[in-house]
Design brief:
Helix content: 25-40%
Bound molecules: NADP nicotinamide-adenine-dinucleotide phosphate
CATH topology: TIM Barrel
Distance between the termini: 28 Å
Order of helices and strands: EEHEHEHEHEHEHEHHEHH
Structural class: alpha/beta
Number of strands: 9
CATH class: Alpha Beta
Low-confidence stretches: none
Oligomer: single chain
Mean pLDDT: 97
Radius of gyration: 18 Å
Strand content: 15-25%
CATH architecture: Alpha-Beta Barrel
């Protein structure tokens, strides 16, 4: 499995997203099997959040991973912005750890920015870090100005990860967020490489299908291969199916030629100026 240096550790270039998992009793066995298949085949990072099924995704992950060596994979969860005070962070974290059947998170993320002053959130995160319940903390859905503001605050430089939308159609982060995060050693996680559930948000242009066909790969494989093409983004596709996961794992080895990338750039241009952050 291709690795990326993520928060100072060699990590699989794709992790497992888990939004909308754990919510259907019919899919439960397949979802558990899928998470285990991923861990058995080189994926060593799982992304989740207290929001996903109001804890149901974390509960599913807890069950799927209970027989695995915890030191061999990273677990990332997120708390709601309205749980971002020191007291509520402690409670949310405690609940997430219980559901996940673990005693620490590798990284804990503020899911998106809310009304709680960032100083308070940082202080809550530093407290739980000091107590050993999380190894590191970060943020999600932060635009460049939010990142700069965070970095200017006491202990703000301890932010280790920012997780934002990143796919062929939403590449605004390439303009300033990716370079800024690289300069400040903040790892970037890209979510929704396929544009989220049932392609609700990403309707690939015809050219994507044509290129995929020429390469004898699927559109999903092309989209994922594109998101991780530069080894600077850890992408976290979600799937509830082992067959889809197998296909996603194969995409890790797909190389897009410079000609193919140039064609995609013509249809999905590289940003040449700051654009407001896309989110889902
Ligand atoms: N921080 C945030 O605000 C935020 C926001 C959104 C997402 N996220 C994270 O990012 C993860 C990924 O994003 P996402 O769940 O929104 O969407 P996504 O990964 O872009 O797409 C998931 C959809 O693609 C399908 N799929 C996956 N692999 C496939 C394949 N090989 N062939 C055909 N279909 C395939 C899945 O269906 P099947 O399950 O049937 O395979 C599902 O419908 C989330 O699960 C979550 O962990 C974070």
């Amino acid at each position: 499995m291709r690795q990326i240096q993520f928060n100072g550790q060699p990590t699989s270039i794709i992790g497992m997203g888990t939004w909308r998992m754990g919510e259907s009793s019919e899919k439960r066995d397949s979802e558990i099997e899928t998470i285990r298949y991923g861990l058995d085949h080189g994926i060593n990072l799982i992304d989740t959040a207290e929001m996903y099924g109001e804890g149901a995704a974390e509960t599913l992950i807890g069950e799927a991973t209970k027989c695995y060596d915890r030191s061999k994979y990273q677990l990332i969860s997120k708390f709601y912005p309205y749980h971002a005070t020191p007291e509520l962070i402690k409670k949310s974290l405690h609940d997430s750890l219980n559901r996940l059947q673990t005693d620490y998170l590798d990284v804990y993320l503020l899911h998106w920015r809310g009304d709680t002053p960032l100083e308070e959130t940082i202080s809550g995160l530093e407290e739980v870090k000091k107590a050993g319940y999380i190894k590191d903390w970060g943020v999600s859905n932060f635009d460049i100005d939010d990142l700069k503001e965070l970095a200017s605050l006491p202990n703000g430089e301890n932010c280790k990860v920012n997780q934002n939308l990143y796919n062929l159609e939403s590449r605004g982060v390439e303009y300033s967020i990716l370079p800024w995060q690289k300069e400040h050693s903040i790892s970037f996680m890209g979510y929704s490489p396929f544009g989220s559930d049932k392609n609700a948000y990403l309707q690939p242009k015809e050219i994507v299908g044509e290129l995929a066909e020429q390469k004898h790969i699927t559109v999903f494989q092309l989209l994922l291969a594109w998101a991780i093409r530069n080894n600077n983004v850890l992408s976290i596709p979600k799937t509830s199916s082992v067959e889809h996961l197998k296909s996603n794992l194969k995409a890790v080895d797909v190389k897009l030629t410079s000609d193919e990338l140039n064609i995609l750039d013509q249809y999905y241009p590289i940003p040449t100026h700051e654009v407001p952050l896309d989110t889902i």
